[in-house]
Amino acid sequence: MTRTAVEQDTGMEDWITLEGVTFVRNRKTILDRIQWKITPGTHWTLIGPNGSGKTTLLQLLAGYLWPTSGDITVLGEKFGHTDLRELRKKIGWVGSFLQAQIPPSQNPLDLVVSGKFASIGIFESPSQDDYAQAREWIQRLECPQVLPFAYGVLSQGEKQRLLIARALIHRPQLLILDEPCAGLDLKAREQLLQTLENLGRTPQAPTMIFVTHHLEEILPVFSHAFLIKAGKCVASGRKSNSLTGEMLSKTFEVPMEVHEEEGRLWSRVRFR
Ligand SMILES: Nc1ncnc2c1ncn2[C@@H]1O[C@H](COP(=O)(O)OP(=O)(O)OP(=O)(O)O)[C@@H](O)[C@H]1O
Ligand SMILES: [Mg+2]
Fold first, then answer.
1. Which of 1, 38, 142, 234 has its Cβ near the most Cβ atoms within 10 Å?
2. Is 8 exposed, middle or buried (CB count within 10 Å of its CB: 0-12, 13-18, 19+)?
3. How far apart are CA 165 and CA 50, in angstroms?
């Protein structure tokens, strides 16, 4: 039997913890007794096959779904004892779950400003300063050319950059990145990864959780990994212990090799 690597950091406050979290829908157990502890100053990658439960897990963390059983604490706030709407304002989200909710007619500037209010669409009155900040973030993400157009007509990469600007404008304490590189060209992908690497190294960095299917996208700032298969944790802890050929092979049910080059991991499926 292969070993399961579950490593728990100890001795730090409850920043983000999941204890025995199970999520059942339509009699299907999508997440099964998940244990996860994220301490301040660590950044995580979340890896697993299609349908293994990654997006569901992130939706639970952001308070969009409620667990069937188990306890969740996010940013020191225990669910059930906290105002989730307020908590969500401290969480930035980039990913297809959010993208699907944006009306095609949405104006890019309003979309980025809406990040301030953790809403899709604007239901409060943004200030001139809010709009100035939105323009600044759109500049930083190098997509000012999209400003005159509706969200629906933009390219995948342009949409992704706007969503990142939207997530960063309110300086979140937790930044959830659910396949943020999907649809980006090679240069745009490297720029985004470098932005995340730099962001993660700033003193006020948000805790980042990054989902990808490509190991080479995991930059050194991501110190830890959580591997999930069919709703169950396979490995959790420092990358050097969890992101190994053995654990990836177990997670994806194919023999995999991993090697490191200039701080990045590259994987290969070993066909026999
Ligand atoms: N309401 C629901 N009812 C039934 N099954 C559901 C429901 N919501 C999600 N699922 C199932 O839960 C599983 C996990 O879905 P999830 O989107 O979390 O996977 P994922 O790991 O993010 O996959 P991907 O890599 O493809 O994005 C899938 O099999 C999905 O079909
Ligand atoms: Mg997903």
1. 38
2. exposed
3. 27
What does pLDDT average to over the chain?
A: 90
Q: Is the CB of 95 under 6 A from ligand 1?
A: no
167 and 178 in a single domain? The answer is: no
- Closest protein CA for atom 27 of ligand 1: 50
Q: Is residue 193 part of a domain?
A: no
From 23, 6, 39, select the one nearest 71 (Cα to Cα).
23
CA–centroid distance, 55 to ligand 2, in Å, is 4
- Give me the domain span that covers residue 135: 96-171
Q: Do residues 69 and 115 both lie within one domain?
A: no
Q: Does 103 lie in the same domain as 27?
A: no
Distance from residue 58's CA to the centre of ligand 2 (Å): 9
Q: Residue 246: inside a domain, yes or no?
A: yes
- Of 54, 68, 252, the residue with max ligand 1 atoms within 8 A of its CB, to mutate for a pocket test, comes to 54
Ligand 1 nearest-atom number relative to CA 58: 18
Residue 182, burial from CB neighbour count under 10 angstroms (0-12, 13-18, 19+): middle
Question: Does one domain contain both 4 and 78?
Answer: yes
- Which residue lies with its CA nearest to atom 16 of ligand 1? 53
Residue 37: CB within 6 Å of ligand 1?
no
Is residue 223 situated within a structural domain? Answer: yes
User: What's the pTM?
Assistant: 0.89
pLDDT-based confidence at residue 256 (cuts at 50, 70, 90): very high
Ligand 1 pocket member 53 (CB < 6 A): yes
Residue 3 has pLDDT above 50, yes or no: no
The response to whether residue 27 sits with its C-beta less than 6 Å from ligand 1 reads no
